[in-house]
């Protein structure tokens, strides 16, 4: 079996449709190809764990879902991907795994598709057990043994006696699960199991280094412990000697598969006399007869043992530091390659100095139009806004209407608006149109003074003055009526005109006095009334400053 299967492609396409880049990458890292997960996919998933907007539970659940596959390749690569993220990813991932009640349930996994499936299924069961134990260890001590600070002031060297006696057995359980992988050099026959072994090898070095420092701290405190503590400490030390034998066998396999000898630490066995000294001290605390030993000989034995174990720890630390340095150099080389590639891409692009210096208008149109702007406020002679309410009418000629909006005149009448409002002015006066109304706030004691309005100008720049001028022209108030116009009393409802004037009835229509009309108007003046004809509106009659229908 080689290459991506159709199932792999379909699954990746499904995640592409749903927009989940993380799930898609997990599927690409755990394909049916008989090779380890690709580095680019692992690097992307590690980067995702460092992003706060990435859903860590979703990432973990996707990996757990992939382990339910029937193919040993997919399941094995899912475990490898999980292990890789646990080692190199953000600690949030391990914290989430430690918080779960259940992890990998692969104790009965078996791929019956072929002979290789049978063989690899055994290592999958062992590998999943180690990953479960690694997460449980984090849950118990709240830190990862492979990432703790080491040295004379490290975590394991500065731990007190009570906590030390509880912590070392946790390391022992994790170390046992790792060594139970129990693979031989001739069984590392494909890229999948080789990738798993390399991760286990790196974990074994770091884990044993922490284990070794815990034992050094235990030995330094042993002769000051109580009887129960000494008995427990002696049992821990005996198990440590057994695991030293197993870890040495594990390192031999690593050497056989081609790992550089400089990357494999040296193990220095503690002198056998140390075990005798520890047993005799416990026997003396139990009241048994023991050989007489001086404090100086006991101290010498302890010093030699601690020195041997310290050398082992230094060897493991050097290997770990060498690995970190190699990883750093690899990252720097990758960044350098990316930088060079980027520079090549920039050098291939044409110079954009000429295009950036030019104006976007000049590049698209060639030149900027110098045509004068349209005057939106030109004043026509017979067009404007006519605002009316039930108690106020005023006429404003500020805005110009488009020529097409003016209805054609069928009568050909020449309307004189000045005569309509009783303000006769020169025909050629250039100030007869006025400007835009500008409302002003008048004080309560300030009255309307029509006399201040310029003669011959119907509407001024001030709203209050324009209204006052209009009211004065209509003869409303205490002023003298102009042109001998006689107004009816406000309470008179009968509409009468001159002796020869007959009112004309207009068709009934719906009338909204609060509406605003903008249209062309025509005015016809009689002796005491003014009749306005507005396009689209029934005829209106101005009488006593009020607006009414005929």
Compute the separation of the termini in Å. 100 Å
The overall pLDDT, averaged over residues, is 74
Q: Name the beta content range.
A: 5-15%
Number of helical elements = 16
Helical fraction: 40-55%
Sheet with most strands: strand arrangement? 2-1-3-4-5-6
Radius of gyration: 50 Å
What CATH architecture label of the domain at 145-345 applies?
Up-down Bundle
User: What's the order of the H and E elements?
Assistant: HHHHHHHHHHHHHHEEHHEEEE
Could you list the spans in which at least 5 consecutive residues all have pLDDT below 50? 352-371, 376-397, 399-403, 408-412, 425-438, 440-456, 479-484, 513-517, 544-550
Q: Report the CATH topology name of the domain at 145-345.
A: Methane Monooxygenase Hydroxylase, Chain G, domain 1
| CATH class value of the domain at 145-345 | Mainly Alpha
Structural class: alpha+beta
Largest sheet: 6 strands, antiparallel
- The rough form would be described as elongated
* Fourth-level CATH superfamily of the domain at 145-345: ANTH domain
Number of strands: 6
GO molecular function: 1-phosphatidylinositol binding; clathrin heavy chain binding; phosphatidylinositol-4,5-bisphosphate binding; SNARE binding
Keywords: Acetylation, Cell membrane, Coated pit, Cytoplasmic vesicle, Endocytosis, Golgi apparatus, Isopeptide bond, Membrane, Nucleus, Phosphoprotein, Ubl conjugation
Family: Belongs to the PICALM/SNAP91 family.
Domain ENTH: 14-145
Give the helix/strand layout.
Blueprint: H1 6-18, H2 21-29, H3 39-49, H4 56-66, H5 72-88, H6 91-99, H7 115-141, H8 161-179, H9 191-222, H10 227-256, H11 272-285, H12 295-348, H13 353-357, H14 360-365, E1 383-388, E2 393-396, H15 417-420, H16 463-474, E3 517-525, E4 530-534, E5 537-543, E6 546-548
Antiparallel strand pairs: 1-2, 1-3, 3-4, 4-5, 5-6
Helix pairs in contact: 1-2, 2-3, 2-4, 3-5, 4-5, 5-7, 5-9, 6-7, 7-8, 8-9, 8-10, 9-10, 9-12, 10-11
Domain ENTH: 14-145
Region (Disordered): 343-366, 428-457
Protein name: Phosphatidylinositol-binding clathrin assembly protein
């Amino acid at each position: 079996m080689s290459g991506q299967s159709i199932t792999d492609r379909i699954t990746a396409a499904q995640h592409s449709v749903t927009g989940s880049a993380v799930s898609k990458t997990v599927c690409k890292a755990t394909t049916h190809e008989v090779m380890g997960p690709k580095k680019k996919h692992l690097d992307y998933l590690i980067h995702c764990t460092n992003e706060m907007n990435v859903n860590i539970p979703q990432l973990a659940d996707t990996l757990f879902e992939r382990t339910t596959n029937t193919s040993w390749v997919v399941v094995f690569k899912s475990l490898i991907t999980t292990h890789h993220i646990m080692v190199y990813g953000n600690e949030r991932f391990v914290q989430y795994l430690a918080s779960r009640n259940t992890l990998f349930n692969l104790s009965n996994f078996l791929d019956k598709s072929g002979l290789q499936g049978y063989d690899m299924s055994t290592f999958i069961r062992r590998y999943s057990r180690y990953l479960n134990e690694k997460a449980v260890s984090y849950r118990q001590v709240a830190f990862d043994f492979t990432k703790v600070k080491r040295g004379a002031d490290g975590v394991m060297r500065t731990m007190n006696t009570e906590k030390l006696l509880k912590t070392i057995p946790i390391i022992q359980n994790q170390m046992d699960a790792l060594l139970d992988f129990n693979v031989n050099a001739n069984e590392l026959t494909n890229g999948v199991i080789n990738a798993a072994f390399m991760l286990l090898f790196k974990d074994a070095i770091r884990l044993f280094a922490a284990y070794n420092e815990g034992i050094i701290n235990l030995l330094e405190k042993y002769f000051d412990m109580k009887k129960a503590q000494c008995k427990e400490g002696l049992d821990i030390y005996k198990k440590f000697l057994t695991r030293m034998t197993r870890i040495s066998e594990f390192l031999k396999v690593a050497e056989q598969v081609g790992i550089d000898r400089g990357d494999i630490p040296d193990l220095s066995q503690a002198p056998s006399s140390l075990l005798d000294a520890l047993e005799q001290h416990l026997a003396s605390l139990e009241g048994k007869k023991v050989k007489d030993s001086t404090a100086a000989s006991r101290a010498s034995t302890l010093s030699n043992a601690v020195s041997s174990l310290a050398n082992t720890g230094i060897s493991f630390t050097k290997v770990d530091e060498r690995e970190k340095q190699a990883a750093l150099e690899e990252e720097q080389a990758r960044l350098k390659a990316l930088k060079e590639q980027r520079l090549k891409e920039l050098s291939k692009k044409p110079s954009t100095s000429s295009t950036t210096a030019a104006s976007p208008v000049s590049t698209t149109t060639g030149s900027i139009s110098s045509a004068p702007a349209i005057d939106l406020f030109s004043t026509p002679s017979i067009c404007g806004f006519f605002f009316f309410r039930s108690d106020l009418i005023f006429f404003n000629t500020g805005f110009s209407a488009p020529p097409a909006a003016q209805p054609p005149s069928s009568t050909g009448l020449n309307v004189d608006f000045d005569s309509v409002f009783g303000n006769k002015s020169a025909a050629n006066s250039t100030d007869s149109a006025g400007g835009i109304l500008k409302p002003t706030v008048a004080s309560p004691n300030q009255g309307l003074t029509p006399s201040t309005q310029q003669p011959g100008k119907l509407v001024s720049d001030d709203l209050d003055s324009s209204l006052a001028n209009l009211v004065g022209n209509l003869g409303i108030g205490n002023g003298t009526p102009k042109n001998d116009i006689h107004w009816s009393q406000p309470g008179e409802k009968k509409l009468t005109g001159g002796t020869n004037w007959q009112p004309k009835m207009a068709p009934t229509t719906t009338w909204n006095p609060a509406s605003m009309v903008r249209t062309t108007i025509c005015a016809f003046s009689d002796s005491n009334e003014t009749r306005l004809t507005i396009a689209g509106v029934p005829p209106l009659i101005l009488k006593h400053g009020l607006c009414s229908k005929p």
